[in-house]
């Protein structure tokens, strides 16, 4: 390098840096265009921790695929409100719907109307239990076999000991998924001639505790209790602790949330049946996208449960529950 060039090189370098700084910045790439809009319409409100996990799965899938995903669910369990929300979703003319078939008769007309309009429909979480020729002609179901879950719950309790009397506490009477869980449990217990019945505890936790207390007062020989989700688990655990029944009453439940995990670790609850609801939200959006984009669909229903979480594996799922994935 000549002496003249060496003399001017620092100046050239500074000018280059200044010009670079003044040059217009390269615009950030535009986000991918949303190709489709999908709705999940459920009987469960966003405040329910179970459905928060479903929404997490839905939102995560919407980040992977170029779609907009929306969730509709009533603040409190109401079939009429579910129908109203479904009608609102259909009126928006979405590219696809994922719906809980919580009451097949109530949802029959609006869903058949949606299908006739060309809107792809999949069932999640709760399937239409009616025979093939009668059920709503959605494409397929993503979720747990509810009856099998209840049957497995009874078998798991019976493997510990044969109860004198058992009760299935249902917090949303008429919900076909919960009713199927209870029926599986009742049938499983009856196979061993265990007296068993269904108890409506409602969704108010304070009233649920009082209802359980009244039932056990009338039936003091009851030593097995099945609840069907977090809305039943929390009052049941409170009742068992307050009445010194921990260890005396076998308690099993469905679905996972922090309170359920604590109850399992404390030995209050024997097990929780997990249906991996994150997958129900994630796979609903995934399969609707693949169907709309490429015409792809699974050949059969997609089962996400039942599976068991107990003291042997509760630590494996605890962190994922904190993250809202299990």
How would you explain this protein's 3D organization?
The protein contains eleven helices and twelve strands. Helix 5 (146-160) packs parallel to helix 6 and helix 7 crosses helix 8 (230-242). The radius of gyration is 26 Å and the shape is globular. The chain is 48% helix and 17% strand. Strands 2-1-3-4-5-11 form a six-stranded parallel sheet, with helices on both faces. Strands 7-6-8-9-10-12 form a six-stranded mixed sheet, with helices on both faces. The protein starts with a helix and ends with a helix. The longest helix has 20 residues, at 3-22. The protein has helices at residues 3-22, 49-64, 79-91, 104-116, 146-160, 176-190, 205-218, 230-242, 258-266, 277-294, 314-322; strands spanning 36-41, 67-72, 96-99, 121-124, 141-144, 166-170, 196-200, 224-227, 250-254, 271-274, 302-305, 307-309. The protein has 326 residues and is α/β, with parallel strands linked by helices.
Brief rundown of the structure:
By secondary structure, this protein is α/β, with parallel strands linked by helices. The protein has helices spanning 3-22, 49-64, 79-91, 104-116, 146-160, 176-190, 205-218, 230-242, 258-266, 277-294, 314-322; strands at 36-41, 67-72, 96-99, 121-124, 141-144, 166-170, 196-200, 224-227, 250-254, 271-274, 302-305, 307-309.
């Amino acid at each position: 390098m000549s002496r003249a060039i060496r003399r001017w090189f620092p100046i050239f370098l500074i000018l280059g840096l200044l010009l670079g700084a003044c040059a217009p910045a390269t615009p950030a790439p535009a986000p991918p265009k949303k190709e489709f809009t999908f709705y999940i319409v459920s009987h469960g409100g966003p405040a329910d921790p179970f459905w928060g996990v479903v929404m997490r799965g839905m939102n995560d899938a919407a980040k992977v695929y170029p779609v907009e995903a929306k969730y509709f669910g009533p603040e409190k369990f109401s079939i009429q409100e579910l129908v109203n929300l479904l009608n609102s979703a259909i009126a928006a003319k979405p590219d696809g719907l994922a719906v809980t078939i919580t009451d097949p008769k109530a949802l029959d007309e609006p869903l058949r109307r949606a299908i006739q309009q060309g809107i792809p429909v999949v069932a999640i979480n709760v399937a239409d239990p009616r025979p093939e020729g009668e059920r709503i002609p959605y494409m397929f179901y993503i979720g747990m076999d509810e009856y099998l879950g209840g049957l497995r719950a009874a078998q798991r309790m019976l493997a510990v000991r044969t109860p004198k009397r058992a009760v299935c506490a249902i917090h949303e009477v008429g919900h076909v998924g919960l009713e199927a869980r209870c029926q599986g449990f009742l049938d499983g217990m009856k196979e061993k001639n265990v007296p068993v019945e269904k108890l409506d505890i409602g969704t108010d936790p304070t009233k649920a505790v009082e209802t359980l207390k009244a039932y056990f007062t009338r039936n003091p020989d009851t030593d097995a209790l099945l609840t069907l989700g977090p809305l039943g688990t929390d009052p049941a655990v409170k009742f068992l602790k307050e009445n010194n029944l921990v260890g005396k009453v076998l308690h099993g439940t469905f679905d996972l949330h922090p309170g359920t995990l604590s109850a399992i670790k404390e030995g209050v609850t024997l097990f929780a049946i997990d249906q991996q609801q994150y997958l129900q939200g994630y796979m609903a959006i995934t399969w609707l996208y693949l169907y709309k984009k490429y015409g792809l669909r699974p050949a059969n229903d997609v089962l996400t449960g039942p599976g068991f979480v107990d003291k042997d594996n509760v630590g494996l799922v605890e962190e994922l529950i904190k993250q809202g994935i299990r």
